[in-house]
Each structure stands twice: as structure tokens, then as C-alpha cells.
Amino acid sequence: MFADSALMSPDFDEEAYLRYALHDPNCQAEQARLASCVKAVREEVHKILSENAEDMLQQVTAACRAQRDVAAVRQATFSLMGSTNRLRHTIQEPYRVISANITKLGNMNAAINILRSILKFIGLTTRLKSQPSQDLARASRTLREVEELLQTSNIKGIEVVDNRIDTVERAAVTIRTKAQEMLRHGDAQDASGVAISLQCLFTLGLLPRVLGSLMTEQKREVIRSLMRDLDPQTIVDEVNHGGSSATNDMNLRMREVLFSR
């Protein structure tokens, strides 16, 4: 038999009670007992509600207030998000316009610089072509400006520039060749020519290399002359065939070889 406490227990077994009730011959008494238990439960619930009514009202009020606060926060969040989107649009649009204008200005500046370089290149090549070949000093300075312009500016590949490259290269070969020839064939009586050739080579940045090459050639020439003039067999042959006069000539030539170079 199930006691009243078992019927109101949290661990109440419904299936076991149904089997018990179905086999119980006194169903009316069991129904009355169930009704009594239901009444007791209702009274207990009413008692609990009566005792905690104030706390429950406060909790309900707090829950309603919290719900209103959450709704207000949600509304403020939506408003803030809308303001942020509007502010982003307000900032981004001018930024895009400014960035586009800066890019356009940079491209225009680059184009203007290239145009200036092209105009300068045309002017220099025209001047280089019109300068007389005798004025190597000015021609070398002009050639140096052209070479520096080609190195520092990105104008190669432009048709008007490429059409004049051959002229610049021919002028460069002519100027360098003439300057080196003037230096190689110059002497003390032609000091101005030597000075002009040195100035041209210095302007073109070729002076150390050309002087080194020239000194090497002169050194080799001196060595060849010494070896030819001081060859023992040649000296012996001249002594044997020329006598004292040949000896004097040989001594004179040795002095010339040793002291004239």
C-alpha cells in the first residue's frame, strides 16, 4: 500500500502505483485518498505562495525592469551601430576622394617629370649635334649631361628618345676617340690640347682608365726600345764592324735611350 507521503514524494513511481490501484478492490477509498492528497498539495502551494508573495513580486518587478533595460540597451546599440555606419560613410567617402586625387596628382607629377626629362634630353642632343667637333670641352660636358639624364630618368623606351640614342652614341664615340688621340699624341708644345683632352676625359669619367692604359702603353714602348737598343748581339756587331766611330755612336745612342725617355 502506498502511503500519503509516498504519493507526494519526488521519487513517486507512477507505474508501480497504477499496478497497485488496478488491483485494489476498494477504488473509491483510493480516489478519496488521492483527492485528499491533491487538496493537501494545493494547500501547501497556496501556503508557499502566500509566504513568498512579496519576494516573488519583487523578483517579477526586477525581471520586468531588467527586460526594459535590456530593450533600452538593445535600442541604444542599434542606434550606435547606425551612427557608426553613417560616420564611417561620412569619413570613407572623403578619404576615397582624397586618395584618388592624391594618386592622380602623383601620376600627373610623374608624367610632368618625364616630359621635362624628354624636353631636356631633346635640347641636350640638339646642342650636342650642333656643337663643332673642335670644341671638345663643351661637347664632353653636354655628353656627360645626356648620360646622367639617361641614368637618372626613366625615359628609355620612348620613341622620341630612342630615335636620338644613335646620335648620342656616335657623338660619344667621336668625342672619346678624339680626346684620347689628343692626349696620346700631345707633347709639351701642345699644352692646350693636352689640357683639353684631360678635361674632356675627366668630365666623362674616363681619365683614370685612359691614363692607366696610356701609361701601360708607354711603359711597354720604353721596354721594347730598351731591349732593341741594348741588345748585346747588336752592340757586338756594331763594335766589330764600326770600330771607334761605331763605339762612339753606340755610347751616344745609349745616352739617348737612357736619358731622353
TrEMBL record:
* Domain Conserved oligomeric Golgi complex subunit 5 helical: from-to ranges: 156-258
Annotated keywords = Golgi apparatus, Membrane
GO BP terms: namely:
intra-Golgi vesicle-mediated transport
Q: How does it sit in the membrane?
A: Peripheral membrane protein
One Pfam family from the UniProt entry?
A: COG5_C
**A single GO cellular-component term on record:** Golgi membrane
Q: Membrane: is it a keyword of this entry?
A: yes
Name its cellular compartments: Golgi apparatus membrane
Residue ranges annotated for the Conserved oligomeric Golgi complex subunit 5 N-terminal domain, each copy included:
5-128
What InterPro entries has UniProt attached to this entry? Answer: Cog5 (IPR019465), COG5_helical (IPR048485), COG5_N (IPR049176)
Q: What PANTHER family does the record tag this protein with?
A: CONSERVED OLIGOMERIC GOLGI COMPLEX COMPONENT 5, CONSERVED OLIGOMERIC GOLGI COMPLEX SUBUNIT 5
What is the protein name for this chain? Answer: Conserved oligomeric Golgi complex subunit 5
